[in-house]
Design a protein that fits this description.
The structure is a single chain. The chain has 187 residues and is an alpha+beta fold. It has helices at residues 3-11, 15-39, 57-60, 104-172; strands at 66-69, 74-77, 95-97, 99-103. Among the domains are: 49-102; 103-174. Residues 3-19 and 31-38 have low confidence and may be disordered. Strands 2-1-3-4 form a four-stranded antiparallel beta sheet. This is Pituitary tumor-transforming gene 1 protein-interacting protein-like. The chain crosses the membrane at residues 106-130. It comes from Seriola lalandi dorsalis. Residues 48-91 form the PSI domain. Residues 158-171 have a biased composition (Basic and acidic residues).
Length: 187
């Protein structure tokens, strides 16, 4: 199988399989990159955060374990025991982590709003899917009901037709009764 046909067949896969193939490809790529990085020369140990104080925010935040405090111009180790740095270390409005242009307070608010929007979107999607499924079931139930009524009507028509044929045969051979509720007489 050629490379081009393999790529085409992957593109034709269903969405779930395609997503799993992409995820596996990223994992394999990540493993390859990490093994390649491990075989190369090791990077020098990062400079401790305290040595980067009184420099710049960008230089401090090159190390992801550092936290920059704007008013004191201090580069400090991120307090790992706490999720958020306490005010005694640096106020949230003045703390920078990851990027210099977003303070911690705005970062928290933004992430909370985004998480809320994602949760609400997922709930709306789930509710819409459930509603569509119920609507689909109602349509399917109505279709089955129509088919059942049509089948019963056909059976009733056939039963009536058979009864008429049987009555004709009884009349032909003189077996027909004038009153179906009368007793059979031995003549």
């Amino acid at each position: 199988m050629s490379m081009r046909s393999m790529v085409f067949s992957r593109l034709m896969m269903s969405g779930v399989r395609r997503a799993s193939v992409v995820a596996v490809a990223f994992i394999i790529l990540g493993v390859c990159v990490t093994t390649e990085a491990q075989t190369s020369t090791p990077a020098p140990a990062p400079t401790p955060c305290a040595f980067r104080s009184n420099t710049s925010c960008a230089e401090c935040l090159q190390n992801v374990t550092c936290l920059w405090c704007m008013p004191t111009q201090q580069c400090i180790d991120y307090p790992m025991r706490n999720i958020l740095p306490p005010n005694s270390v640096c106020p949230l409005t003045d703390a920078r982590w990851g990027v210099c242009w977003v303070n911690f307070q705005i970062l928290i608010i933004t992430m909370s709003v985004l998480a809320g929007i994602i949760i609400i979107a997922l709930l709306v999607c789930c509710l819409c899917c459930c509603k569509c499924e119920r609507t689909g079931n109602k349509r399917e139930d109505a279709k089955v009901e129509r088919q059942t009524r049509a089948r019963k009507a056909r059976q009733k028509a056939k039963r009536t037709e058979m009864q008429l044929r049987h009555d004709e045969i009884r009349q032909k051979y003189g077996l027909a009764k004038d009153n179906p509720y009368s007793r059979m007489d031995d003549h």
